[in-house]
């Protein structure tokens, strides 16, 4: 698999992307890109149209990044579109192990590390100080609905 560097302006979002991408998702991915760098290439077709990575592309634009690593999928138009849809759908089949996630998040909070999509470190530290609650109990209380929904998928 070859990775090529493409200008953000060269990469074209797929006009009929069936995924709705809320601004909150773009913001959280932008935080991740800022904190960790671009760790996953965008998958594009031969015409530079996004197959996988629409949210990363939007986040990169939000951050003003000039280029992104890309992988070119050279399948038929139908195979490209099937992969585009499958990649988005298959993530929905995964579930969180709530106890393990609580433990891992608690370790990161103790070290002052923010995990995008879960909490803001400074805001969380302030809330924990005010309530006297530990991070594990906080996550069980705050995210129990999300974990329950995920486990039912």
Task: Provide an overview of this structure.
The protein has 153 residues and is α+β, with helices and mostly antiparallel strands. 52% of the residues lie in helices and 11% in strands. It contains six helices and four strands; from the N terminus they run βαββαβαααα. It has helices at residues 23-36, 54-63, 77-90, 98-110, 121-131, 135-152, and strands at 3-7, 42-44, 50-52, 67-72. The protein has a four-stranded mixed sheet. Helix 4 (98-110) packs antiparallel against helix 6. The chain is elongated. The two termini are 32 Å apart.
Task: List descriptors.
single chain; 153 residues; alpha+beta; four-stranded mixed β-sheet; 6 helices; 4 strands; 52% helix
Helix content: 40-55%
Strand order of the largest sheet: 1-4-2-3
Describe the sheet with the most strands: 4 strands, mixed
> Which structural class matches the secondary elements?
alpha+beta
Element order: H for helix, E for strand = EHEEHEHHHH
The residue-averaged pLDDT reads 84
Global morphology: elongated
What is the distance, rounded to the nearest whole angstrom, between the alpha carbons of the first and last residues? 32 Å
Please tally the β strands and state the result.
4
Our estimate of the beta-strand percent is 5-15%
Helix run count: 6
Radius of gyration equals 18 Å
Residue stretches low in confidence (pLDDT < 50, at least 5 long) are 146-153
């Amino acid at each position: 698999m070859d990775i090529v560097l493409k200008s953000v302006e060269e990469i074209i979002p797929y006009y009929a992307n069936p995924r709705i991408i809320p601004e909150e998702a773009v913001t959280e991915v932008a935080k991740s890109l800022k904190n960790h760098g671009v760790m996953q290439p965008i998958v594009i077709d031969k015409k530079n149209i996004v197959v996988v990575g629409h949210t990363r592309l939007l986040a990169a634009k939000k951050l003003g990044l000039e280029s992104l690593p890309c992988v070119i999928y050279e399948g038929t138009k139908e195979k490209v579109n099937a992969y585009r849809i499958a990649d988005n759908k298959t993530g929905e089949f995964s579930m969180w192990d709530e106890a393990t996630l609580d433990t891992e998040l608690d370790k990161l909070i103790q070290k002052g590390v923010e995990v995008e999509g879960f909490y803001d470190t400074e805001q969380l530290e302030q809330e924990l100080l005010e309530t006297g609650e530990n991070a594990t109990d906080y996550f069980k209380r705050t995210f129990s609905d999300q974990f329950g929904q995920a486990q039912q998928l």
